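Build the 3D complex.
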Amino acid sequence: MSVNTYEFIVGGIIPYLAVLTFVVGMAYRFKVWFKTPQPARMTLFPAPQGSTAKAVLAEALFFPSLFKGDKLLWCASWVFHATLVLVFVGHIRVFTGLADSIMLAVGMTPATIDKMSLTSGVAAGVILLASAILLLARRLAFARVREISGVGDFVALLLLLGILATGDMLRFGPHFNLAQTREWAWSLLSFSPVVPSNPIFLVHALLALLLVAYIPFSKVLHFGGIFFSQSALRR
Amino acid sequence: MSEKQEVINQITAIDKGPKALKLYMEICARCGTCASVCPVYFGEPSAKYNPVLRSDLIRSIFKKHATTTGKLFGSLAGAHDYTEGEIKEWVDWFYSCTGCRRCATYCPFGIDNSVITRKGRAIIDKLGLTPETMLKVIKTSLETGNTDGASPEAFRAAVAFLEEEMKEEHGVDIKIPIDVEGAEYFYVPPSGDVLVNPEATTGLAKVFHALGMTDKWTMSSCFFDGANYGLFTGNDADMKADNKHCVDEAKKLKCKVMLMGECGHAYRIMKMMMEPGKWWGDLPFKVMNCMEFTAEQIKAGRLKFDKNMNPDPVTYHDPCNFARSCGIVEEPRDILKATCLDYREMYPNRGENWCCGGGAGLSAMDSIYEFRMNVSGKKKVEQTKATGAKYVAAACANCKRQLTQLMEFHGEKVAVGGVHDMLSRSILINGKAAVRTDYV
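Done.
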């Protein structure tokens, strides 16, 4: 397999397959979850003061139940998830340039935007890697978590660690021009992929796309599932 | 059908619902938070008591037979097939979960392992392996209308005895009306609150007497027991059949309120399952708990007490079914604070309280006595001791049995009883509290 074939598969074919798998898989999950009946009420008290939607949203955003139950895990996992969202938003910004035009419109200069992006990107990269390592360490350190950890749990974590490590290498290693990734993202939309040839980028993209495709079939289903399971308890 | 096929059919049926159970098969992130808040795992942190591994008994078979990844990747995806005979081991595993729902309170996804436990027990029941004690209780209840197997005559005799006692205590006739058609309130306690620890029932009788409402309530000589072990064995048909007894009796008596007693699971079935689930259609009565009733009367200033009758420190143990499953937490406290000189909180409490270790029917099982004393009840002993209380009130017959045995086993001089028991000792009837000194 020539380098170009490899590049083309990773950057030109897998993105479509991964996103398609994710979208179809999650849509199927959501559809099934929506229509599976829950005849019995199973309210858990104290019941929410306000609406179910508000309580469920609070659970999804801030993990208050977990906070009461396990402070260490709450710290690691909340920081992890919150930073993950931040990094996701950062990637969208790089891919689309949409955020930039908004920030320019509210009067920020390109230089400030780049500086902001650089600072938050660096911080996020480090924090994310650290919190993921902490989650892995916790899984290995405590018997109660170790004894329930299976292949799937480690696959998910190791995939993540691979993505984070290569992401950080792109950030901290030799200069990698992010404009290439924007070009790549747009080229995917017009079905004429132009793939950056940076090897680390390719590994980063490959692992990330694998994770995206893995979500609908794995424990990562807690993403999405939380809304349904928490709704059952808090109504 | 082979045992294996039966188990597999039962588990793959989860694919069609209920929704929560199906989600629990799919979304657990395996973070171990449930284990760190589970009373059983606290008592002995070994793998067989880890809630995730217990739930995995079902989950892994679901993955094997109802998910694509499980079929393709087998154990790599957490899937395992059922081995013939495994069910015998399941009995120990699923009958070591107290169904307290504490895991659901702290799980970031709200996974309620008690739902999975109940499913496991339902399969055990289908295969005829439900523990003897449970089967006996259910059989007795379905045949006689109460879990103690007491006849209407025995019930009448017990009530007559209680009325005599109250006469001795207060010097006046305080009645416990029986089978009065048209009475507004139909009182359904656990049978133990008439036959074993009857002070809760005398307490309520005194409340009605003090309010001048003796003609407004009644008990039934046939159906004076709300206890319903179908909830514990996972057998819905049994649970509904047992429940129908009480509901039919309430209709026959033409009551307006079914006044449930100090029994957590009985109230939960009536209030949270039967009523909203419309098991028997629209009801001509509403379901309410006696602690709500009494607390309302206290708040309205209609009852008077001499707290000095209960001078020792008293604490309240929140039964899981009342606190986590029905939200009855302030009413018992209102009653205890009004009737006792020194009320003390147990920590944590309310929705976060630790199970007594005898939930989901375990309390009745003498075959696991050692387990209940040393493992599932361990935290409860610590918690109770820390309050320094001399009396722990629990609004639940199962909690009371477990707590009484726990205190005895661990050599703690702490009395155990109900909430209305304390009221019975301090309520003023014609300005005077009960004259009695022989309380244990």
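DSSP finds eleven helices and no strands in chain A.
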